Amino acid sequence: MDRITEYDEEDLEDSKELGLADTANKNDAVDQKDNRAVARIRYVVFLVLLSVTVAVSMTIYVYNKNAEVSAFEDHFKDQAAKVANTFTFNAERRLEALMGFSNHITSHALTSGEQFPMVTLPNFERHATITLQLAEVVAMVVLPVVTFEQREDYVKYTMAKQGWINDGLALQQQRMDEDNEEVLHLQEQFDKGQLITNSSDVDSTKNVPPLIFKVKPGTTEPEFEDGPGPYTPFWTFAPAIPAWNLVNFNAFTHPTRFRELTAFLQAKTTLLSSAADLRKNDPLTTNRKSVMNLFLNRWQNGTFEYEEGPVSDIYVPIYDSFEPDKKLGQILSSYIYWQSYFTNVLPEGQNGIVSILENSCGQSFTYVIHGPEVTYVGEGDLHETKYDDLVVQTGFGAFLGKDAVEVEPLEAQCFYNVRIYPSAEMEADQLTNSPLIFALGLMGVFLFTSVVFLTYDRVVARRHEKIETKAIRSTAVVQSLFPENVRDRLYDSGDRENKKTHGGGFWNDADRKNHAVDSNMPIADLYPECTVLFADIVGFTSWSALHTPAEVFKLLETLYARFDKIAKKRRVFKVETIGDCYVAVTGLPEVQEDHAVFMAKFAAQCLEQLNPVLHSLVDRLGPETANLNMRYGLNSGPVTAGVLRGEKARFQLFGDTVNTAARMESTGAAGRIHISQNTADLLVSAGLDSWVVPRETMIEAKGKGKLQTFWIAPEVELSFTARSTKSSRLGRQTSAMGGEDDDEDEARDTVSRAVHRLVNNNSTQQPSAF
Question: What is the torsional sign of CA 759, 760, 766, 768?
């Protein structure tokens, strides 16, 4: 057969992807594309879920955070308004109390007939105590305005009226034991001077000094006041303290009061001084701190002791009458301890409110309010600048407002304003981690949902992959068994059955009618021009008896896999293998004009490839394998092809043409291609009469009688060319090489039946189109 066909190995190599492998590759390409699309969609879905999670969580966080911040700001403004309103209210009320006490002294002078500056309010301590409580000042001191001419009479007057001190002390005897330290300090400072060398019989610790004195410049030592006046000596003060040596001290000469009293005597109107922090180690304020502690020891039941913080003096005029031409007779000087203005303003739990007390004289002091208590932080504006936009303030008119001053502002006059800010402490108390916790919780829920979704998606994807793999294998098996047009009709039939089973309740009458007809129609067609081939291994029965089943299948798979490749190349449709018999057909499922030529070339090429395949298996299957051979039988004519539906449906050929082809094979010779008269006529009509060699004797065919048959001439050269014809979709051919696909084995088992059953089935069939 070396002259029959020059087999093109390169062309066969191009057609390796047959049967299941070809199907898998094409499906893999589609699947990979689909999988990439699904992966992209999954990635996009994950990004969308993640983006939505982050966006929603951030939105919720920002919303809740802003709500908390807004609530914090509103809460602060409420508390700050309380502080500001309380400060303004107290300032007005306390100033009115001081002015009322001033008018009380004027009224006493008018009713008693006393002349200023020698005027003393009876029961001074009792009257002053009420004013101290209303004005909430630490102390009040009456400073008579004494001229040089009135000086001697005034000193005699004070010596005669000094009993008011003992009267006042008698009302607060319980405080006397706590005064010793401060009294000793004041007495020590007083004794440094030389005021009473000529009056040794006077006890300076129990009597007022018998003269008006001042402090030596740059020191705290007293000396005789020799100035021309006017003088503003200390006279009555409340609360009473055991400091007789304060009486008759000319306040005009004190460094911190000189500028204030000078301005006051010029304007003769209420004046509020700058503030001084008495805790500083300033020699000029040392005595003032001692005096302040003596006063504080009696103020508000002794609950205060001066430690720090600014103190101011307020000066209120005491006139000699209420007439328009009234004259200044005395001055009511009071100590304002600013810390008291921020005490007991807020309830417990309201912490961290920063109050800045500032004045028009360029000073500022910082306090922090913690509920009813207040802490002095220090001099200067020490609030946190990040809260600047939340400031609440009283304005400089809160205490002795500018609009209340009838003359130009005095040089020493200071107007006060309070600025109120929140602090980090207050913010920490009001703001919580709830927005963050809520946002994180929401994010956790979203992430958990996303993970569950992705996990579910992955499980479904894996299940789909398994189902898809099985479907691909099943499809490959189906494609190897059925032509494409038959497969499509089988699928349509299956879809209708599913519709009937699962959705029959929704069918209309037309659907039911069509299904009733279609379900009874067989899947079969008549193909009038076909050529059928039967090829059988000669000596296979005796050979298989000597070999194991695995070796038998190895032989069949290797040999028929080679035939499958040639069939695909030659546009031959493989029908089935029945035992060691190979059945193929041309002319279906698509019409082929040269079907006999195609089949003749296919048979010749299979015969040519037989020996190389058998010799390649000698090492594995034994030398007797090389002795095997094959018979080939061809017949042409009409063929009925279709599917016998049932549990194991398969594609089958029916008709006399098939019977005759089987007889051609069974009556043929090993290593020869035996053809019928019909096939020979087609080859001759195709101009290939040189291929056809009449058989020497006629054969006796069962049911046919004597027949004239022919051989394909072995000496005729058939060049292998791939004819340039319209590509036909012959379905998938079974690639049995390797035999590892269980589904394929099952399909092969299903179609493997005895040759005689095929022949017997066809012996009674006549060509029909059903």
Answer: negative
